[in-house]
Specification:
By secondary structure, this protein is of the alpha/beta class. The protein has nine helices and seven strands. Strands 3-2-1-4-5-7-6 form a seven-stranded mixed β-sheet, sandwiched between helices.
């Protein structure tokens, strides 16, 4: 039985949903935010190759959460803004930097072919109808622009190791689980194609640590780090990383 939008929203408002939090109270929260800073550096370095020399460098972060990536992109010279469904997360984002993260209807105010980069960092798996949103944001992307999508990969070693305890299944917040083939097929339906893929190295450790808590009822630091390391080492051959960034472009561009 599927949950209503209101029922699903309650799972995002819980204090345990760290992605919509700015708190650094526990040791794990401090580790999480440090890892997020490192991952953010990787994201910014990746998109920098697509930054135009002209002043026009608009970036839209779809599912911006509390706005960390939007704020970091603006500091790097992007004209960045975000959209986010959670009012709580938007409030946190705009307290730090006013009028940077907006409700979803903000998309209706954007001109077609206006965005150099559109990002979806661990968002696609949360959408009830991914095709609907891809259809909505695709016209906003410049013909030479890039859509950057990051999602967990259920074919990774850490997913196989933890099986039903794998934290990246994140039921009921994650409504979809994608393989690399599934991502390609999804965007091909919209005349888009995967240009390149990139690993999110730290996700294997983070997801594995959370998974040990689910499997053993307490977090096993060394077990989680070991599984994360093995997952990354195996993925260097299989390319099945715990989470994968996809660079997607318009077909024939």
């Amino acid at each position: 039985m599927s949950l209503s939008e209101a029922e699903l929203q309650r799972y995002y408002e819980t204090n345990d949903y760290i992605s919509h939090s700015n708190q650094k109270q526990t040791c794990f929260e401090r580790i999480y935010f440090a890892a997020r800073e490192l991952t953010q550096y990787q994201k910014l370095r990746l998109i920098s190759r697509f930054k135009p020399k002209s002043p026009s460098s608009a970036l839209l972060d779809f599912g911006a959460g509390v706005g960390h990536f939007v704020h970091a992109a603006n500091r790097q010279g992007w004209q960045a803004c975000g959209v986010e469904i959670s009012q709580k997360a938007r409030t946190i984002a705009n307290t730090k930097s006013p009028e940077t993260v907006f409700p979803l209807n903000y998309l209706d105010t954007l001109q077609q072919n206006s965005q150099t980069i559109i990002t979806m960092w661990h968002v696609l798996e949360h959408l009830k109808n991914p095709d609907q949103y891809i259809k909505q944001i695709k016209p906003l992307l410049r013909k030479d622009g890039r859509l950057i999508v990051a999602v967990p990969n259920f074919k990774s070693y850490d997913a196989a190791y933890f099986a039903s305890f794998w934290a990246a299944y994140d039921v009921p917040r994650h409504l979809w689980h994608f393989s690399q083939n599934a991502i390609s097929e999804l965007f091909e339906r919209h005349d888009m194609e995967v240009e390149s893929t990139h690993p999110m190295w730290l996700d294997a450790f983070y997801v594995s640590l959370i998974s040990t808590k689910y499997k053993f009822n307490s977090m096993k630091l060394w077990r989680g780090l070991w599984v994360g390391l093995v997952s990354n080492l195996k993925a260097m051959k299989t390319r099945e990383f715990s989470s994968i960034i996809y660079v997607i472009k318009h077909q024939n561009n």
